[in-house]
Each structure stands twice: as C-alpha cells, then as structure tokens.
Design goal:
The chain is mainly beta and 233 residues long. Helix content is 3%, strand content 29%. The chain is built from 1 helix and 14 strands; from the N terminus they run H-E-E-E-E-E-E-E-E-E-E-E-E-E-E. The protein has one helix spanning 3-9, and strands at residues 15-24, 32-33, 55-61, 73-78, 90-91, 94-95, 112-117, 134-140, 153-155, 176-181, 187-188, 204-205, 212-217, 227-232. The radius of gyration is 17 Å and the shape is globular. This is DUF1963 domain-containing protein.
Length: 233
C-alpha cells in the first residue's frame, strides 16, 4: 500500500472545537449555551422525574461531515434541581428500552435528556430562563489528542479520562461517540436562578457534578433521545 493509502486509512475523524462567545444573546441562535431551544414538531421541552422543566445547557447544529450524525441538531438538557453523576443501570453494556427515562440511581427517574433532531424549525417563543444565553462557534481542528489534550468538542474520538467504555443501544446498535464536555465546564446562570446542588458557585451550573462528559449516540437513529451519557474523572 502506498504511503498516501496509509495516511488515508489513519486520517483522524472530522472534529470541531466548541468555543463560547462573551456577548449575551438577545435573539434565537441554533448554536448556543442556554437560549431558545429548537424542537421537532413532535418534541416537547423535557421534564425531570421531579416534574420540573429541565434547563437547556447547550445546543448545536452538527456539521455535515460528523460521522453518523452530521446535519442534525444536538440539544443537552439537565435539571437545575438535581445534580449527580449519570449512572443508568445496564446489563453487560446493553441499555434498556427508553434508557433515557429509566431510573438514575439514586433517583427514581432521569434528570437529563439529550436530543438529536433531524429538522427542528421554529425556536421556542421564550428562552431558557436559568442558563445565560451565549453564542457557540464550531471550529474544525485536527483531533490528534494526547492524554491531557481535552476539548469541548463534537466529532473526532473520545479522549477518555480513565478507560474506553462501550455500550449498545436497546435496539442492538453499538453507540458511537458524538461529543465531549470537559471536567468543570461552567454554564453561567442569571441572577435569581435556582441554585444547583453540589455546584461550584451559585452563579454557575455544571453537568453531572462537573465530571468529564461523553455523549454516545445510536447510529441507527432509533429515537431522537437515544443518546447515552458517560461520566469519568
């Protein structure tokens, strides 16, 4: 095989670093922390097991060259009133039916939801009330990470903090890596927003106690919510 063939075989997967702007958003944007969520016609704003509406932490339009999921809209929600590591029950790596609604020990149900939607159109009339709305920008980069070269990113390969983890969707398809959020990534909140339990400050939220967060999604696209969250530290 020619050198060009070897290089092509080992070419890194398309990857994009997620960068956060500094100016508050005053209108809907499809790439944002907080802001105005976009939903498909049959989707509603997710609610926690406690009945409270979940906070929109961030949303992104995925570039077309992202493996399996290019062109879809990613939205990550987490309850402001419940905060713990994500630890759904699995059987030998196989996720149960509608695992995104299953009990999340020590809670009797799920306090998070991730959606991958194909064609969300009109944004919600009102923005996320707690998380401050800031623009996000996706910038392509070469994802040749070292052990400590960790980014807020979509695509590429997971930079596991401990060991690689593999899971299979309830439909039988192996879950594929989609997005990574670094440890202690802060999401600023408006004054007067509910204080998140176990956060680092009253004016910021964390995802899953500030653990390293890996989003693994079902390539078969069996459900918009078929996205599993892995935490490591």
């Amino acid at each position: 095989m020619s050198d060009g063939g070897v290089e092509e075989m080992w070419a890194p997967l398309p990857a994009y670093r997620v960068e956060t702007g500094t100016e508050p958003l005053d209108r809907p944007a499809r790439n944002s922390l907080g802001g105005w969520p976009y939903f498909d016609d049959d989707q509603e704003w997710p609610r926690c097991f406690c009945g409270e509406r979940m906070a929109l932490f961030f949303q992104l339009d995925l570039p077309d060259d992202i493996e399996f999921f290019g062109g879809e809209h990613l939205s990550v929600f987490h309850c402001a009133h419940h905060n713990d590591a994500s630890d759904p029950v699995t059987a030998d790596g196989r996720l149960g039916p509608r695992f995104w609604e299953a009990p999340q020990p020590p809670f009797p149900g799920s306090f998070w939801r991730v959606l991958l939607q194909r064609d969300p159109g009109v944004p919600e009339a009102e923005p996320e009330p707690a998380v401050r709305a800031l623009a996000l920008t996706l910038r392509p980069f070469v994802d040749a990470h070292g052990p400590f070269d960790v980014h807020f990113k979509v695509g590429g390969t997971a930079a596991w903090a401990q060991w690689p983890e593999r899971y299979w969707c309830a439909c039988g398809t192996e879950m594929a890596f989609l997005c990574q959020v670094p440890e202690y990534q802060e999401f600023g909140v408006h004054p007067g927003a509910p204080v998140q339990p176990y956060s680092i400050r009253d004016d910021a939220y964390l995802l899953f106690l500030g653990n390293e967060v890996y989003l693994l999604a079902c390539p078969a696209r069996c459900d918009p919510a078929a996205v599993f969250l892995v935490n490591q530290h």
